[in-house]
Specification:
This protein has one domain (32-150): Beta-Lactamase (2-Layer Sandwich), CATH 3.30.450. Helix content is 47%, strand content 18%. It contains 3 helices and 5 strands.
């Protein structure tokens, strides 16, 4: 009887370990990749658009462009100067300030497992002044067990 109990016990925990490993693997595989050429284009294009809007009309034009990006690409974007000031005059969330300073956007270690994706990009104007964009990529969930896909 001991060997039957041992087989059932070990089979149960082996199945549990296999399920956990598959869930972790699926989570890593289906996360949106923010280092692909597609994302590089989105980051560069977004940074260019924000900087051009700011240079063309200041904070009001920049805010209109940010609202446009939020409604079309579902990006929550902010433009910072090299001093860490948000140039649109909006109060940026803490994650955006941390990213503009080159820090991790997550305050706590467990937040790294959230479906929120953050991207940052540094750009310079014609005079060589550096600017930094910090963006959050919004995701949608097509089903209960579906991965987080960016809304673009």
């Amino acid at each position: 009887m001991k060997s039957l109990f041992l087989r059932i016990f070990l089979s149960f925990w082996l199945a549990q370990a296999l399920i956990v490993a598959l869930v972790v693997l699926a989570t890593v595989v289906f996360r949106p990749q923010t280092e692909s050429p597609f994302w590089e284009y989105i980051k560069t294009n977004t940074a260019d658009q924000l900087l051009q809007a700011y240079q063309a009309g200041g904070a009001p034009t920049l805010n209109r462009k940010i609202d446009e990006l939020r409604s079309t690409l579902h990006f929550q974007a902010y433009l910072f100067d090299d001093q860490g000031r948000e140039l649109g005059g909006r109060s940026a969330p803490p994650w955006a300030h941390r990213m503009s300073n080159g820090l991790d956007p997550h305050e706590r270690w467990w937040q790294r497992f959230s479906p929120r994706r953050f991207v940052t990009h540094q750009i310079s104007d014609a005079a060589g002044h550096p600017y930094i964009t910090s963006s959050e990529v919004r995701c949608w969930f097509p089903g209960l067990f579906a991965p987080c896909w960016p809304v673009i």
